[in-house]
Amino acid sequence: MENDGRGSGPLPRGDGTVPYEGVWRFTAPAVDASVPQARHAVRDLLARQGVPASDDLIQGLLLIVSELVTNAVRHAALLSPMLAVEVAVGAEWVRVSVEDNHPYRPTALVADHGQTGGRGLLLVREITAEAGGACDVEHTASGGKVIWAALPLKPDGD
Fold first, then answer.
1. Whether 24 contacts 38, CB under 8 Å
2. Contact 28, 36 (CB under 8 A)
């Protein structure tokens, strides 16, 4: 994963922000090896920044990242050889998103129980809903798409 320079660290104190707030963006090739790399990069970033998230929330975020990067690799790589993962952390929420340059906007359809795949976006929506968050797919100015999920940040013990 390559950090393109956005958000090299938390926002400075003194402006009403908490020390772990910020936005970080990583780019990677749309290949299978990028899935675990993205998951590890997000996990390490959250730990390094001291984001006060429960283990359940972090595991949910990492599963969302894995599903979204996997979808980009499987379905967008032909038209989008690179993808971007963005992590944005606020005082009360954390948002992860994956962007690619493929114009197709996926939908979370009900999957056939006999299929081994096709449930990624359903899983993302379920994790997000269970956490009380939101997720969506948006078009980018370049004609691609960004799929994001934002979850409320609930520190351990809440």
1. no
2. no
